[in-house]
Structures are given as C-alpha cells and as structure tokens.
C-alpha cells in the first residue's frame, strides 16, 4: 500500500502505482460526454494522468487549471484529469473555467483506482482517488509517477513535464 496523508493524518491506498519502466494496466474512464476514454485510444500519444479526489476542492481544481495550461504546449500528449466525480461535475467545471486542453475523466464506473493502487482505503475520503500523477510514453510504459505525500498539496508539475523530455 502507498501512504499519503490528509492534513497530516496517514491515509493508505489499496495498492501501489505501477513501477517506472513497467507497462501500465489498461484503463477506461467515463468522459464528460459519457463516452469512454481509454488507454487503447490514447496509444501512440504520451499520456499524463492527473489523478485527484474531487474537482470540488481548491487544490484539485488548481491542478486541473495548471495541467490545462501546461498541456497547451505539449506535443503528442494527452493530459487526462481523473477523479471519482461524476462526469457531469467534471464537464461543468471545465466548461465554466474554459478548460479545453485536458480530457476530464471519471473513474466512477471503472477499476482504475484498484488497478493503479490509488483508491484511498481509509480516512475521511475513503473510496475516492488519492492525488497522484502518472506519466506514460506512447506505448503505455510508466515514465514517472508520484503519489503526493499530502493530499492537500499540489503535485510536482515540473517533474511530470520533465519526464516527457
């Protein structure tokens, strides 16, 4: 189990992220339009998975805004912003904020959290995804990953983008 924290209190996840150098498990999310967003359709592109508990928190919203800004300058890269929020909430947020460079994705009916070891196993946000970033190459190989040590802080954007170099 990976360990993160919420306001200093340890929180365990259901497993570990796939190792750097390993092929990531296949994944499928539900997009804001209720269509599927899956690893198969993203093959051939580099993928940044920005994973967070809920778009309805300030830090989660900030990470989506920041990755939207960064995604505008990335070639052959899809930035997928994933949470267990319903697709409608993700779509509403992105529409209201003018977010157009990332793919909003809901794990509400997928095994993503278990497959990637990111479902929070305990704590007040139990059942939601932990805050993490996973960077994949064009073939789905993990180039970088980070489970943020404190859920209330933003991920290391520089390290995620550097992994694409």
What is the tally of beta strands? Answer: 9
**Tally the helices: what do you get?**
5
What's the story with the biggest beta sheet?
Answer: 7 strands, mixed
Series of H and E elements? EEEEHEHEHEHEEH
- Proportion of residues in β-strands: 25-35%
Can you list the strand order of the major beta sheet?
A: 4-3-7-6-5-8-9
Keywords: Antioxidant, Disulfide bond, Oxidoreductase, Peroxidase, Redox-active center
Family: Belongs to the peroxiredoxin family. Tpx subfamily.
Subunit structure: Homodimer.
Protein name: Thiol peroxidase
Quick recap:
The protein has 5 helices and 9 strands, in the order E-E-E-E-H-E-H-E-H-E-H-E-E-H. The chain is an alpha+beta fold and 165 residues long. The mean pLDDT is 96.
List keywords for this structure.
peroxidase; TPX; thioredoxin-dependent peroxiredoxin activity; 5 helices; two-stranded antiparallel ribbon; about 160 residues; alpha+beta; seven-stranded mixed beta sheet; single chain
